Amino acid sequence: MSKISIIIPTLNEALNIKRLLLHLLSNSNPDNISELIVVDCGSNDGTQSFTTEIIKKNKQVQLLNSDRGRAKQMNVGAQHATGDILYFLHADTFPPKYFDQLIINEVENSNEAGCFKMKFDSKHWWLTLAGWLTKFNWRACRGGDQSQFITKKLFNELGCFNEQFTIYEDNDLINKLYKQNKFVVIQEWITTSARRYEANGIWKLQYHFWMIYIKKWCGASADELRTYYLKHIKE
User: Fold this and answer.
1) How far is CA 109 from CA 75, 105, 154, in A?
2) Domain range spanning residue 222?
3) Domain of 153: which CATH number?
4) What does the pLDDT read at residue 235?
5) Is there a single domain that holds both residue 189 and residue 230?
6) Using CA atoms, how far apart are residues 51 and 58, in angstroms rounded to an integer?
7) What is the pLDDT of residue 203?
8) Are residues 28 and 129 in the same domain?
């Protein structure tokens, strides 16, 4: 029977991590979950304390520490995972009920990697449209906020996350999967926060995301992408 290891990279996610962990535990079958692994890279806002609070009540939850960088954090989580399916999830993103069984069904149907369609917790028309487009299995509609499931075997075959990327690491892995025609979009909604759009301005942030995508397509290095990100986008 397939089992899932959920891996959540965090940095100062005190506002979300407790709510997310409780959401995951209450919307999944514990028999389907090997562990929920929070990989923190130096939070100073109580993220680790909130996680430890959940750990005391549920032994499926684990807390690991890592060097900074989401690719590094997720690789650390994958190295410790005991499940045969890895599920990478952002701390401000909430999967649908029975997400675990939906993922397992896809893997048992020979779909080794994929994501959910996504909606933002915002009523802005552009974000509503952007979310609606994620139901299509088009490369341009993919991103890390949709979460990412992949069999551990395939993940290792592809070389894990490329730790040269301090941004765009999700998309780098997705590119490899699309090149092999190994990606499916589960037609259930995952809900993610629009907080970064709200902090930066919707059109400004969308423009810069498009520029990062185009720069990568044109051959920009991981360092060049990171430099552009730090110059134009607020965390």
Assistant:
1) 26, 6, 15
2) 196-235
3) 3.90.550.10
4) 74
5) no
6) 10
7) 96
8) yes
* 88 exposure class (CB count in 10 Å sphere: 0-12, 13-18, 19+): buried
Angle formed at CA 94 by CA 92 and CA 98, multiple of 5 degrees: 160
Share of the chain above pLDDT 70, in %: 100
- Per-position b or e across 93-127, b if 16+ CB within 10 A of its CB: bbbeeebbebbbebbeeebbbbbbbbbbebeeeeb
Per the listing, tokens 């209450």 go with: 26
- What is the chain's percent helix, strand, coil content, to nearest 5? 45, 20, 35
Judge if 139 and 220 occupy the same domain: no
Question: Helices 202-217 and 222-232 sit at what angle, rounded to 10 degrees?
Answer: 170
Q: Which residues pair with 96 in a beta bridge?
A: none
| Cβ atoms of 122 and 201 closer than 8 Å | no
pLDDT given at position 161 = 97
Q: Which residues of the chain have pLDDT under 70?
A: none
